[in-house]
Amino acid sequence: MSTSENPSPAGRVDGVLFDIDDTLVDLETAMDKTLRHVSAEHAPGLAEHEWAEYTRLYSKDPLGHYDRFLSGELSFVEQRLERIQHAQEWVHGTLLDYESMMAWNKAYERTLPVHFAPFDDVARALDALEDAGIGYGAVSNNVEEYQRIKLDKAGLRRVEVLVGTDAVGCPKPDPRIFHEGARQLGTAPERTMYVGDNLVVDAEGAEAAGLAGVWLKRPEAYGTPGPKDREYDGVTVGSLDELLPLLGLG
Ligand SMILES: [Mg+2]
Question: How far apart are CA 237 and CA 5, in angstroms?
Answer without folding.
Answer: 10
